[in-house]
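Hi, here's the filled form for the chain we discussed.

Project: internal
Contact: R.S.
Residues: 598
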Amino acid sequence: MTRKGRFAGSLTLTHNGNSLILPGNANITTSINDRFEALSLGSGNWIVTKYQKADGTSVVAGGVSNVVTATAATTLTSTPTLLAITPASYGVAVTLPDATTCSLGGPIHVIDNKGAYPVKVLNSAGTLLGFIFAGVVSHISLSDKSTAAGVWTIENNELVGASAQLLTTNMTTIYGCIALDSDREFILGSTASNTYGVVYQKSTNTFGAVTLIRSYTLGNLNPLCILQATNQVLVVTCNNVNPGALEAVICTITSNTTINPQTPATATLSSYLSDNADGCGLIAVGTSFIFSYGVGATAWQIREITVSGTTPTISAATVLGGTAGGLIVAGDSTHVIAVSTATTHLYTKPYTIGGLAAGTGTDTNETGYVSVGLVKLTPLGSRWAVIYYNGSGVGTKGGIISLSGTTTTISIAILDSTNFIQDAIVIGSNKILYLGRASTNNCNILTDTAGTASAGTAITLSSQTARACLYVSGTDVFVQEGTTSYFVQKVNCSGTSPVLSKTMSVAIGNTNVPVFNTSNAVLSRSQTAVYGTEFTQGILTGSGTDNYFPRVKSGVFSKINTGGSYFYGGFSEYRGKADSERWVTDDATAITKIECVP
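And the returned structure, exactly as it came back:
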């Protein structure tokens, strides 16, 4: 809890190391119109984090006499310091000292960012605490020194900032980002005619060379990548010809950031590649890797890739029962589950790795539907959930899939009999929150109870007709809505039916809404919900009418650029090595890493 105030006259504030911690650990004699800001430490104890005299001067620690200049990463000590830093690039970090060696109160340190790039602030454990933007002066105080990390109060702190940037025209679109280890990330990107990779090393804030992986005209299969082994990344691509030419290649990583594409394996499709399995990517099942795609006008197939050393082998195609959809998910260590559709039919079936032999599946005929459209397939505890809709736009259902041996079964519940889905998100191990497009009855919960699907009682969040899930916090889901007025809604999902517990108006009219203004935890949206292990909602959700469609970038998004905040529409749907990170493409000239305080 923070309190701000103004003094109406003169009195003496007495410093106390427990109950009233003052700047400089010294008493203050107040004057009329002096202002302060204080943070509650609980049990009636307070720390004054800001104190400004009526004449505009600040009361700062008298011991801040050590002045240091820097252009690169700097680690502060317990000695109170004024750090005048001029960062030469993105990603320059200032690390605070071991809190147990410092005195409570402050400001202990002052950071003056004199450069053109934001400066990261880390605690002694390396955890991101925030960013000091260009031209900003920040006073830093300490309110808890019981651990080395401490609890720091950072004035003028920003929760989101750019932490790395590579100037390149070879990655106009980012298709994947995977963690090689705790320090390095492999980024996969393409132009219209080539696919490239690059490795970023966080500890040195450096990039390796942007490396050509395949020269070809991109088709409808987005380039795919997955960590196959230590310092080995499997990349799968397909060109835009008829018949399509698949290619799978192992890229070894040497000298930390050097990419070395090995000899690729190839396979020729029966026709042109027509579609992706949206968001599924490459799925690891045991030691194999499975992917799904549409071929020609009326078929969906899956293939298996195995790797010996650095040599991949692509299996023959296995044709799915349906002619559309083709979403896949890992079942167990030896099976992949595929869900597909054909007109009014919904199919589920397991396939065993080592040849993709088909097991026994299900065929659900939705006779009242014009057609069945697949939306989402996701793990849900020990089972899997699928959400699908009536092709006429009237009606959405959720199914719970169970796997026993080589047999799948499905239990289905009606989420909405008149509405079309806009978004959904996983809550815990047995629930999914559903959001619909209509102005009424637009929110419900799908629950899995020992393999049986059930739907709660739908509620109306608002009369708006555009909405998207932002993130989950415990059993609460935060939802952004807006077509004319814009809201963030807090939905309690602890029961079987949703409950609207709080509404926060964030904008009126056509203003675009950067949702980080509401919470710094937006990026806690699980990377496995609800499309697959490489999918997440964008870092920020624009308030355009299409903001509910994952992967659509037509909304306006908040962007951190040199010196401040701007707007940008190209945030990648692929996470960085953590949920609090995203890579973005910048007008086809750069890729930039955005981080959020976790």
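Let me know if anything looks off before we file it.
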